[in-house]
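Let us work through a complete example step by step.
Step 1: write down the sequence.
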Amino acid sequence: MTTIAVSSPPRRVLGDVVSQSLLGDAILVVGAAALVGLLAQVSIPLGFTPVPITGQTLGVLLAGAALGWRRAGISMALYVAAGVAGVPWFAQHSHGLPTATFGYLVGFVLAGSLLGWLAARGRDRTVLRALTSMLLGEAAIYAVALPWLAVSLHVSLAHALTLGFTPFVVGDLVKAALAGLALPASWRLVDRLGRAKG
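Step 2: predict the structure and record it as tokens.
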């Protein structure tokens, strides 16, 4: 008896729709890093913590889910490396090696890769799944950022939560909701355009 293997179509992320070449991938990677750098300038310092409120997490969530894990991971690593090397695109036009907040930057690389991996498995196609993915991406950032903050400031993890998590919960939920709505809406637009061409 012969069995025929039916291969499923390759899973795609939005970046695969846009880019069909290495040059296109490079443009997406650099563009996503620049988007995060631009959103980092939406920054509100808080007097009681070295961690400011910024818009950059929204860029991480969108880039991660849109680019796929490889491009997103490379893009976020580029953002971090270029900022450390001197590009002034961290919060408030800063650059170099930030001590207390560096864990957030490392978390961006992890979150971008995780979100890209989830998106390649269709977790960006419906609002509920996309929102769940965005919350997991936020959790990945904090999983690195809070221990780093605690160690760098010589405080307990509980105090690091007060300094680096609690003030940002509402804003992060809003960002996750925006990204969770944007990705499925983008896929609906892609599907509509595909049907119009067909």
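Step 3: interpret the result. The first strand starts at residue 43 and ends at 44.
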